[in-house]
Specification:
209 residues, alpha+beta, 2 domains, 5-stranded antiparallel beta sheet, 9% strand, elongated
Length: 209
């Protein structure tokens, strides 16, 4: 496949390569042929989703037009997933950029932080480290959430058992969990490269229950 898709907004980018089977299906000259191709085991899109994309491609049915149809359909989901507000979605541009594929190997190791990519003059995305640090801390908060839920249940059990020592220990543990973002911020700020940020792991307080 010759094309990839680039969602751009204020210099931030998201790069995607659509499923080749979906692209092939959208190139079929009839809807019936599109459906048959789409149902191949290498990839399947719901027909209600596929139909407007197939109609969007129009004629001539080129690979570039098929990729654009897929991106136009995905633009809202990508924007929300990667931190753009709904108000900003209407300003999100959809661009095909063949040259970026030449840098795919270079970008693969940075893919975890692709929501924090920014374009450069050389059209090679770089990781915006302040944005990447925010992403990493949001991941920590998501990892913390089930720990807080469990500690809440454990605290209720300790209260039912009238275990005053465990109650206080759990309260201290919950405080430490809530303080994780602030406590770990210096370590995150010290990560100056994507590789360093990816290898960093937070120091979690020990669950006393």
């Amino acid at each position: 496949m010759s094309y990839c898709g680039v969602f751009a907004l204020a210099g931030r980018v998201h790069i995607t390569r659509p499923n080749p089977n979906t692209v092939t299906a959208l190139l079929m000259p009839t809807w019936e042929a599109c459906v048959r191709t789409n149902e191949q085991p290498t990839g399947h899109v719901d027909h209600t989703t596929l139909r407007p994309m197939w109609e969007f491609v129009g004629f001539p049915r080129t690979e570039q037009a098929a990729v654009r149809a897929i991106l136009e359909h995905a633009v809202q989901r990508v924007a929300v997933t990667h931190g753009f507000t709904r108000a900003e979605v209407s300003h999100l541009a959809v661009v095909e950029e063949v040259g970026l594929l030449a840098h795919e190997a270079q970008l693969n190791h940075q893919r975890r932080f692709r929501a924090s990519w920014r374009l450069t003059e050389a059209s090679v995305p770089i990781v915006d480290m302040p944005l990447a640090r925010i992403q990493r801390m949001n991941e920590v908060r998501a990892e913390r959430a089930p720990k807080l839920v469990k500690s809440d249940v454990d605290l209720l059990k300790a209260q039912e058992a009238a275990n005053l020592v465990l109650q206080q220990t759990l309260r201290d543990y919950r405080t430490a969990l809530r303080d994780i973002p602030q406590a770990q911020k210096p370590a995150v700020d010290a990560c100056t490269t994507p590789d360093a940020l990816e290898s960093w792991v937070p120091t979690w307080p020990v669950d006393p229950a």
